[in-house]
């Protein structure tokens, strides 16, 4: 759980940057070489490489070198981790609402509750 | 409401508002639905007033209880609205709760067939160590979430 939490921290931190999000968006369409990616951004290549490195460090992308060309791929497993995290937060509240509904519709006939005026 | 960062639920509950309200504000009743069965919830403190405590424990065997939630109410509008946060504990001390700091707003609306029940959970910094003040985080959340949805749908379709 600690590892997963740490991984999530890294994913969220990596996604705080608009350039890195743009890279993720582009790679969502398919793999792309670093040089082709870099051409789409108006920053220096060294700066761009830092972003690539950050994304790779946090597991959002993988890069594979073939000859002189380094190609970036999205690592979708990391995104699934974030999706799971969001879904979990939602599930807790949806489940709680289901149980509340069961409880109040069940207990309604058995034990009438005072009208709101009495609660104030 | 920030649709990019918050969770919201709306549900029509076919029971009177007073019943739904008391299910939240009567400790014995709250304990009966707050946690999923078979986990047993115990309501340790329930002070339904602004600044009041909301402290619950949980148990799998009914004997050994471990902390579940240590929160405090921010807003209490009888029959209408409850707002509480676990970013402050019941003694108003700032905390870094697991799994996530949040502010929950529960609304109990009038509906011809019962109660229009609403949950809005606000999240600030989803990762305690992520520098959420960094430029573009909030702005980017929606895009990222939409991106995630597309990716996951793609994965599911593969």
From TrEMBL, chain A:
One of its GO terms (molecular function) is DNA binding. SUPFAM superfamilies: Winged helix' DNA-binding domain. It comes from the Bacteria. The keyword Cell inner membrane does not apply. The keyword Chaperone does not apply. Gene3D superfamilies: Winged helix-like DNA-binding domain superfamily/Winged helix DNA-binding domain. Residues 1-94 form the HTH arsR-type domain. Pfam families: HTH_20 (PF12840). CDD domains: HTH_ARSR. Keywords: DNA-binding. This is DNA-binding transcriptional ArsR family regulator. It comes from Diaminobutyricimonas aerilata.
TrEMBL record, chain B:
It comes from the Bacteria. Residues 14-153 form the Activator of Hsp90 ATPase homologue 1/2-like C-terminal domain. Pfam families: AHSA1 (PF08327). InterPro entries: ASHA1/2-like_C, START-like_dom_sf. Gene3D superfamilies: 3.30.530.20. SUPFAM superfamilies: Bet v1-like. Belongs to the AHA1 family. This is Uncharacterized protein YndB with AHSA1/START domain. It comes from Diaminobutyricimonas aerilata.
């Amino acid at each position: 759980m600690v590892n997963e939490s740490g991984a999530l921290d890294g994913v969220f931190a990596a996604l705080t940057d608009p350039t890195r999000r743009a890279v993720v968006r582009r790679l969502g369409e398919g793999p792309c070489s670093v040089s082709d990616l870099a051409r789409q951004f108006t920053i220096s290549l060294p700066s761009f490489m830092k972003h690539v490195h950050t994304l790779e460090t946090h597991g959002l992308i993988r890069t594979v070198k073939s000859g002189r060309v380094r190609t970036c791929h999205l690592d979708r497993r990391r995104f699934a981790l974030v999706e799971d995290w969001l879904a979990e937060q939602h599930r807790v509240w949806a489940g709680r609402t289901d149980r509340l509904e069961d409880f109040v519709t069940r207990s309604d006939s058995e034990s009438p509750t005072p009208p709101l005026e009495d609660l104030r | 409401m920030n649709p990019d960062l918050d969770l919201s639920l709306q549900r029509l509950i076919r029971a009177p508002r007073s019943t739904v309200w008391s299910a939240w504000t009567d400790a014995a009743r709250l304990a009966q639905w707050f946690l999923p069965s078979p986990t047993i919830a115990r309501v340790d403190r329930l002070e339904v007033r602004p600044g009041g405590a909301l402290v619950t424990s949980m148990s799998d065997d009914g004997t050994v209880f471990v902390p579940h939630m240590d929160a405090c109410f921010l807003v209490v509008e009888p029959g209408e609205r409850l707002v509480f946060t676990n970013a402050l504990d019941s003694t108003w001390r700032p905390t870094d709760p697991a799994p996530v700091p949040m502010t929950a707003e529960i609304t109990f609306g009038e509906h011809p067939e019962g109660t229009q029940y609403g949950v809005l959970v606000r999240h600030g910094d989803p990762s305690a160590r992520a520098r959420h003040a960094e430029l573009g985080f909030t702005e980017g959340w929606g895009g990222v979430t939409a991106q995630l949805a597309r990716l996951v749908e793609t994965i599911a379709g593969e």
